[in-house]
Write a structure and sequence with these properties.
By secondary structure, the chain is an alpha+beta fold. It is built from three helices and nine strands, in the order E-E-E-H-E-E-E-H-E-E-E-H. The strands form three sheets. It has a three-stranded antiparallel beta sheet, with helices on one face. The protein has a three-stranded mixed beta sheet with strand order 2-3-5, with no helix packed on it. A three-stranded antiparallel beta sheet has the order 7-8-9, with no helix packed on it. The longest helix is centred in the N-terminal third of the chain and has 10 residues. Keywords: Disulfide bond, Glycoprotein, Membrane, Repeat, Signal, Transmembrane, Transmembrane helix.
């Protein structure tokens, strides 16, 4: 939900963006435009798979302060010299940072796995791009209460 191939809608059709000049400042604008507050990272070479249809933008060069891609310096719509192997991607990873940020971020950072019902299971956390387990050393009912509350249970 916070990363993928970047596609734009223009003149009645969806298309991709070529990764020429694509960098983290462009990713920052995409994340802002989507209302995501994670750490912006630009990905190139169709990292999230090749799109289909037109390649609508090329040579995108944002300063990072724009509110939308349309405000960035770029080629004219539809003017490009790319193939879909160069489709641009973005990650707006809300789970990067320190352990303190991890504990304070969305409920999406914690999940229960392997249980017989949605309200039970092994506690797993998302950190640095991967899901991992929580060691039970020092684990108490208080920790369980925090996880339950974070997942929306009473």
């Amino acid at each position: 939900s916070f990363e993928g191939r970047v596609e734009v809608y223009h003149d009645g059709k969806w298309g991709t963006i070529c990764d020429d000049q694509w960098d983290d400042r462009d990713a920052e604008v995409v994340c802002r435009q989507l209302g995501l507050s994670g750490t912006p990272k630009a990905l190139s070479w169709a990292h999230y798979g090749q799109g289909s249809g037109p390649i609508l933008l090329d040579e995108v060069q944002c300063s990072g302060n724009e509110l939308s891609i349309d405000q960035c310096k770029k080629s004219d719509w539809g003017q490009q010299n790319c193939d879909h192997i160069e489709d641009a991607g973005v990650s707006c990873d809300p789970f990067t940072g320190t352990d303190v940020q991890l504990c304070q971020s969305d409920a999406g950072t914690v999940r229960l796995a392997g249980g017989r019902s949605p309200g039970e299971g092994r506690v797993e956390v998302y950190y640095n791009g991967d899901w991992g387990t929580v060691c039970d050393d020092g684990w108490t009912d208080l920790g369980a209460q925090v996880v339950c509350r974070q997942l929306g249970f009473r």
